[in-house]
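Issue 218. Parser rejects a valid record. Input:
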Amino acid sequence: SKLTNLGHLEMTWRSRVRFHPLLVRILHKSRLRYYGKPEKAMDMPYQAYFEVADGSGMTSMVLWSSLCPEWYNSMKVGTVLLLEQYAIKDSYPFKTQPTPGDSQMKRFATIEISLNDRNPPTKISIIPEEMVKPEWGLPEVKYRFITRSELDDLPHNYSCDVIGLVTFVGRAERARKREHCEDFWLYRWAHAIDGTSDHPFILELFATSQPDVFEHIHPMTYLVCTQMRVVRDLTENPSSTIYLTTSNESQIFITGWHKGQPYTKDTKVKNFIQWMKSQSEADQIKKTVIGGYYPFPRPPDNLSDY
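Output the parser choked on:
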């Protein structure tokens, strides 16, 4: 069938009601959002954002309502989609923006693709990777992996991807989303090493929409975290309080989940695997810890400051 592209859609969408099919690759995936309220009767108040791209550039795609439980887990980073009967809308200005791995890619920030179960009901097809043709011109997924030795030189809020061997994982903890509210974020602390520094990555891992991964992080697993943000406490010694925290688009992978992921082709990932092959598993196991309370960043010295 006749295909369109994102660049053409951005220029012509206001003058059209129906659009030609669209072929895109998913580059980023947000956590699933629940927006239900007690006073509103809605069957499936779910929403998820994706960043998708073709040869012309990148834009946001929103999955709505009952399409979320049906499609969310199938739509992975790197998945190629054929979309039909979708809608185009003005983009929502307040959503979070992931940092693209390819800084040269054009971004169409004024529009977003809306996938609904009605008005019109979107037809979604997943194209297996072995059937994807080079002439379609779809971009590859690119990453921004860093090593632990590079972390100390990175600025606050820098976006990056990391891989390491888990040496510590803390218990799951809760923090209120806002003061005096009943909603909580669930998170846990972890340490991971990659052989480039004496210090580990300190990772604040909030529960994403991957409970099966979040609950099974344990020492000696290979941990990959994407779209992490650098956090520096600039008021104290910056190097001692530097850590990484998850963002809305973070994805977490552990041993058993790496096969077929696009990052397996990345040079720094390959370097880490080579380093791990040179390590003694018995020696590393002796250094691992699990559970317990982990006060980080360190609380102030006196109670009044705290």
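Fixed in the parser; the record now loads. The chain has a mean pLDDT of 92.
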